[in-house]
Specification:
This protein is α+β, with helices and mostly antiparallel strands and 577 residues long. It is built from 14 helices and 21 strands. Strand 11 (257-263) and strand 12 (269-281) form a beta hairpin.
Length: 577
């Protein structure tokens, strides 16, 4: 080979052999490239040693998928483990994101300014941010926009326990049931204990109504323990599945976002949250939710903090960390284990309800339709597991604006004396709350077991969870067989009980409001402010094959049910538009 190289013909210089000067330059270039690769490798190893306590970075396969359809879809498309070269890039991206987040948490002026209409909510000053953290736009369309916010709050959970829940993908989904509808870990790059965790993840976010498009992110999640009482968690989008992300209705890109958690003893922590995204709504945001979504209220830092506070409070009540009145259960649920089982069942009911609100990807049939353009979205699907009744399920939802505060609407739906005014299950008859479990300090935050007065249905009860916080409220309920509920109280696995929830979601409309003393706005004009109400029902229609006739009959039935319920609600509230 050496002789062949000596006698090789070089077309570029039209002479035999390779000139000595060119050989010397090529060797020098190769040495420089080799040294650069070695330097990158050493930097990655040093990072793992210094920051994550793990000098070797094994290639870990995909985390076993749960039964959620979205996670099954992801597992089918994610089959390639991260290579060594990818790992070094991912690590550098994660470290840069962590450094940026720490700076955003540390500095107020000139990076942040307080929103004039909301005390305590901060928004990034774009010119200052771009000067300190210059980067190209990830979504280059005329409709793309930035959303940024920072908010802080105290939560009723220790920092250690809280970070454990946030880094566990299943617990993370459980602690944000009203925001995160699907989540999975695609690749575990490093699984060190709190010194550093680095994962590639998928997340689907959706709230409030089928009129709001979901947001999907493929991102790096990196968490670090700063000292004995402080943890930081950062998420940053990463283009490792571009072909999938481009196919979703809303193109979303997360810049370094996350939170810092500081333990303050007594089982409590302070959390500061930053949310910073760029979004491109391919389908324009519905007019009802335009102010709420585009004003960073739907997915902003305050919503994450408020949801975290509410769920941590619920967790404290479920574990007996906060004492509840002994007469609440009135002999129906006598043991702490029975109470926890009912709370677990109710939690699954809530999660299932919010998953249904994102109707576009739950179908085995054509996409949901607006029935006769009346604003009622209807969808059909086949049940997908033992946690739902077996058969075909029709779901329907509608959203509307009402000139009342969220407290006014919540009190109306929560009042058992007024339930007969809107609930088709009660058939106009009064209902009785047999027992309830407090899930928070607000009297409306509770799980209730309700007995409707139905002479022919004396073995049916309603499980209901109601919840209210500073941003909104929800009342979610499902009819249940009395025998099934008693089995849960007596210790049977709550995940095996089929449940089909319906309910209401209430939120502010995102506009400045001027309300009277009764909680209603001073004008029925939408510009005066009010609340957004989403009504959603689910009905099991058949156990066998679905026919075209049954399909249309079911759609008509659920449409009539939801339309008549909305009319009853308006009449009971004396609102006629």
């Amino acid at each position: 080979m050496h002789e062949a190289l000596k006698n090789a013909f070089c077309p570029s210089c039209n002479s035999s052999g390779v000139c000595e000067e060119e050989k010397r330059q090529n060797l020098q270039r190769l040495r420089i490239e080799n040294a650069h690769l070695k330097e990158e490798h050493e930097r990655a190893v040093n990072f793992l040693t210094n920051y994550m306590g793990n000098p070797i970075l094994p290639s870990v396969g995909t985390e076993p998928s749960t039964s959620a359809p979205g996670e099954q879809y992801m597992s089918q498309h994610w089959s390639t483990s991260v290579t060594h070269v990818d790992q070094s890039v991912i690590i550098e991206t994660a470290v840069a994101a962590m450094n940026e987040l720490m700076e955003l948490l540390r500095v107020n002026e000139p990076l942040w300014f307080e929103a004039p209409s909301e005390h305590g909510r901060y928004t990034l000053r774009r010119d200052s941010y771009d000067m300190i953290f210059p980067k190209s736009n990830q979504v280059n369309t005329s409709s793309a926009r930035f959303e940024s916010s920072k908010d802080s709050g105290e939560v009723a959970m220790s920092a250690t326990h809280l970070i454990e829940m946030l880094v566990d993908v299943n617990k993370w989904k459980e602690i944000f049931p009203t925001i995160v509808t699907k989540a999975t870990t695609l690749e575990a790059i490093d699984t060190g204990i709190f010194g550093g965790l680095l994962h590639l993840m998928y997340q689907k976010m959706h709230i409030l109504s089928p009129l709001v498009a979901p947001r999907e992110f493929f991102f790096i999640r990196y968490s670090r323990q700063i000292n004995s009482s402080t943890w930081v968690l950062v998420d940053v989008s990463y283009d490792f599945i571009t072909q999938l992300q481009d196919s979703v209705p809303t193109r979303s890109w997360r810049f370094p976002s996350g939170c810092i958690i500081q333990d303050i003893s007594n089982g409590k922590s302070t959390v500061t949250w930053i949310e910073h995204v760029q979004v491109d709504d391919k389908l324009s945001t519905h007019r009802l939710y335009r102010d709420f979504v585009c004003g960073s209220q739907a997915y902003g830092a305050k919503r994450w903090i408020t949801s975290l506070q509410r769920m941590c409070e619920r967790f404290a009540f479920s574990n007996g960390l906060i004492a509840t009145p002994t007469n609440e259960l009135e002999g129906v649920i006598e043991s702490l284990e029975g109470k926890r089982n009912v709370m677990t069942l109710s939690q699954r009911m809530v999660e299932s309800f919010f998953e249904v609100l994102c109707m576009s990807d739950k179908l085995d049939f054509p996409n949901p339709l607006e029935y006769h353009n009346s604003g009622v979205c209807v969808a059909l699907r086949k049940s997908n597991g033992p946690h739902q009744p077996d058969g075909f399920i029709v779901s329907a939802a509608t959203s509307l604006w009402l000139p009342f505060s969220k407290e006014h609407l919540f009190n109306f739906f929560h009042d058992e004396k007024r339930r007969a005014q809107w609930d088709a299950l009660s058939n106009g008859n009064p209902v009785t709350t047999v027992a309830h479990i407090s899930t928070g300090t607000h009297p409306g935050n509770r799980i209730s077991i309700i007995q409707p007065f139905l002479p022919k249905e004396n073995k049916m009860v309603v499980l209901q969870e109601s919840s209210i916080d500073s941003l909104g409220a929800a009342i979610i309920y499902a009819p249940m067989d009395l025998k099934a509920l008693l089995s849960v109280v007596n210790g049977e696995d709550a995940t095996k009980i089929p449940i089909l929830p319906s309910g209401f979601v209430i939120s502010t409309d995102g506009r400045a409001s001027s309300r009277g003393t009764n909680g209603a706005s001073t004008s029925s004009n939408t510009g005066s402010g009010g609340s957004l109400l989403t009504v959603a029902f689910q009905i099991l229609i058949c156990h066998s094959q679905l026919t075209t006739q049954l399909n249309m009959e079911s759609v008509a039935t659920v449409h009539t049910l939801i339309s008549s319920t909305v009319k009853k609600i308006k009449a009971a509230l004396h609102y006629y538009d």
